[in-house]
Design goal:
Radius of gyration: 22 Å
Oligomer: single chain
Helix content: 40-55%
CATH architecture of the largest domain: 3-Layer(aba) Sandwich
Mean pLDDT: 84
Structural class: alpha/beta
Number of helices: 13
Strand order of the largest sheet: 1-6-2-5-4-3
Strand content: 15-25%
CATH superfamily of the largest domain: P-loop containing nucleotide triphosphate hydrolases
Number of domains: 2
Order of helices and strands: EHHEHEHHEHEHEEHEEEHHEHEHH
Shape: globular
Number of strands: 12
């Protein structure tokens, strides 16, 4: 069930808003009736909090000055946080709103700060906060997490300024704020952000009973996640049959076309890729995660390709923490952009990485890998690809 963590939902004491926007429960019920989702009482209680934010945003939109608290929603993987965020965002009546994945947002933050400082200007954080507030009154973050010292150093000051400017923020995360950036460098400097967030936002937990993504049946049309059976694995290990599966899939999708090298220009440098055909990338775990790539690189790949093939994903040991972090970011970006993933791996997704730094966060990656194998995800990815390729 839903657990409220800190204080009662402290909405303003003015007259309550009109009930014209009581849409979320209706939209949720419709999704249940159409069998797109399963009914869950914890999700319903979360919608009640989100509905209150919608109501008070409508009051502000009408010209009344009221305080609307932000919301931080956390819970285990696959419990429906992103689905509820989508319902909330679609129903929000204001025009100045934005929903963005946290990785993308932080890339924009660093780019703005870099550009601002090149102009020999000071206080880039204040300028950035005003820039964000000029175009948005509501900012929604999916998959909020902190693993980078540069991000940790920025967040406290930035969000302090944003809340001073009365920006309303709705966040989903797998972790309670107190559990963010555990073991990170100079974590004591990050704690100021946690305090600011707890003072400005209501912290609630979505404690649904199950990971709903694990209920998705695998695609009946095409194998998209392949583990070579034992009889195919010879002296060379799993890598050879794993590569062969991905190559066969590539030949089928491209009608036998030969892959060609290509590159993506970004941020003054070149990201080189060994095998490309039109909107299809043929790659490997080593090429994408074995070298020093980051979220900016994966975002560029997601914008360039509609199908990404990754061969030979190994079972990941604790000492491969850097490769694990890159793989998590890669899957996050591909999932958020509804990119079709075809891959081969040494073991099933739940067994890829079970212990070591980031094992908790990797559970989200497993959940997403399972969903990305489903008919419903593959159909969405194919529909998006058709729209982008149509003249």
């Amino acid at each position: 069930m839903l657990k409220k963590i800190f204080r009662q939902f402290d909405l303003p004491t003015q007259e309550p808003p009109p009930p014209a926007l009581a849409l979320l429960a209706e939209q949720y019920s419709l999704q249940v009736e159409q069998k797109h989702i399963q009914y869950d009482p914890a999700q319903i209680q979360t919608l009640e909090y989100m509905q209150k934010i919608l109501d008070w945003l409508a009051v502000k939109e009408s010209g009344n000055h009221v305080h609307c608290p932000s919301l931080y929603l956390f819970g285990d993987v696959g419990r429906g946080k992103s689905m509820l965020m989508a319902l909330f965002y679609q129903a929000c009546p204001i025009q100045q709103k934005r929903r963005v994945h946290f990785n993308t947002f932080m890339q924009e933050v660093h780019a703005f700060i870099h550009s601002w400082r090149l102009q020999n200007k000071t206080d880039a954080i204040s300028a950035l906060a005003k820039h964000i507030r000029s175009s948005a009154r509501l900012l929604c973050f999916d998959e909020f997490h902190v693993s980078d010292i540069a991000d940790a150093m920025i967040l406290g000051r930035l969000f302090g300024k944003l809340f001073e400017l009365e920006l309303v923020v709705v966040i989903t995360s797998n972790r309670h704020p107190n559990d963010l950036y555990q073991g990170g460098l100079q974590r004591e400097q990050f704690l100021s952000f946690v305090e600011i967030l707890q003072n400005a936002a209501n912290i609630i937990e979505l404690a649904a009973d199950q990971d709903y993504r694990l209920n998705y049946p695998s695609s009946t049309q095409q194998t998209t996640y392949y583990c070579p059976p034992a009889e195919e694995i010879g002296a060379q290990g799993f890598a050879k049959p794993a590569h062969e599966f991905v190559k066969r899939s590539f030949r089928k999708l491209t009608e036998g076309a030969l892959p060609q090298p290509d590159s993506i220009l970004m941020l003054g440098r070149e990201l080189r890729l060994a095998a490309v055909h039109n909107d299809i990338l043929l790659s490997s775990f080593n090429e994408l995660c074995g070298q020093a790539l980051g979220s900016a690189d994966y975002l560029a790949i997601a914008k360039r390709f509609n199908i990404v093939m990754v061969a030979a994903i190994p079972r990941l040991a604790p000492e491969k923490r850097n490769e694990v972090k890159r793989f998590v970011t890669l899957i996050d970006v591909l999932y958020e952009h509804t990119i079709k993933l075809i891959c081969s791996a040494e073991v099933p997704a739940p067994a890829l990485y079970t212990e070591g730094d980031g094992a908790f966060e990797f559970r989200r990656t497993v959940s997403r890998l399972v969903e990305m194998q489903s008919d419903s995800y593959c159909q969405r990815a194919e529909a998006l690809r058709n729209r982008q390729l149509s003249p």
